[in-house]
Amino acid sequence: MNKIQCFFFDVFISIGLSDSTAKFLNMLTLLIITVFIFFTVDILVRKLLRLFFAKLARRTRTKFDDLLIRNKVPRNIAHIIPIIVAIELIPLVFKDYEFIKYPVQKLLHVLAIIISLWIVRSLLNTIKDYLKSLKNFKDKPIDSYIQVFMIFAWLAGVLFAIAYISGIEVKTFLTGLGAVSAVIILIFKDTIMGFVASIQVSINDMVRIGDWVTFEKFGADGDVIEINLATVKVQNFDMTITTIPTYALISDSFKNWRGMQKSGGRRIKRSIFVNMTSIKYLSDEQVEELKKIQLISEYLNTKQTELNSFNKDHNINKELLLNGRNLTNIGVFRKYIDTYINKHSAINKDMFIMTRHLQPTTQGLPIEIYAFSRDKRWENYEYIMADIFDHILAAVPYFDLEVFELPNSHSFKI
After folding, report:
1. Which listed CATH number (3.30.360.10, 3.30.70.100, 3.90.1680.10, 2.60.200.20) goes with 266-408?
2. Which branch of life, at top level (predicted)?
3. Residues in the chain, pLDDT under 70
4. What is the pTM of this model?
């Protein structure tokens, strides 16, 4: 190296240049040569690494090496080698200019730290993409963990860079850093909270990518498409994207529909409100008329025989329907609904089925249907539920009942 350095210096001296001019031109020439070597080594190493990884990707069945190329790992590794070469050549170039040599050396070392961080980031992105391609990790918040590693990597890189530039040992620098830890915690508050939330969400299996969640506070109702350190992205059913802070998953209440999707059916829980003034006992003639309804004809025959036997055994005066035991139109209607639901082909018979009265309200008597549809897809579920209530609402008049409805202009027509 000394011979090369002296060669150019001697050439400039031999053509009659002054000592100071020869030193400057010698430095400039060596700098140009170093820059040329830097870019040449960078291009050659990059091509060689790219060729090596391309051949490796073709020979192996795993997708990991393909992902290494996609995330530019070979390219980033190639950048570190010419920097190492440049660091070795800088003392030769700036031998006569010490005040330039040290800043340039520090700059190259900082650049080496940055490129090392790029390499780490590329490797972590490759690991993330590879894990996401595996079935067992598709619904895991891999992004959150990768971001945590990158935060620590960048923090370590910045600390080493500052320590190297300032000439302070990393240990001493970290000791002094404790004094401003409160400020750092304040700056990274959301990141720390998001990290803790990500761990709790993962350990407790609260949310997975692909889950259907409803988060009323943030107006989110759709599928989780991304979970990272700071946010959870939900694609709503209207195709909009709602971003929710990760820590909100453990601090606020939300609904995850995964249990429903894994179960045997989706719950139907809806009521109709019957006008209570239309509820009454049924006479024998009305019972005979209702026996024409096939779903409850057998029930009415059995029930009527049972009630007649009871009333006769107890000498009940049936001149007044209130006396003894009697069928009511609301009771027969409830039995009709229950039988209809139990025979409906779209209802899961292995899950809970119930038709019940709820507490009377100012809007009438609620009759609630509680059952589960076999088909859990939203559009089919809504169709099944609408089909059931279309039939029930149309059946109400056959039982001489009325559905409660708030008064309107038609209510006052004579």
Report:
1. 3.30.70.100
2. Bacteria
3. 1-14, 16, 19, 57, 138-141, 144, 167-188, 203, 408-414
4. 0.53
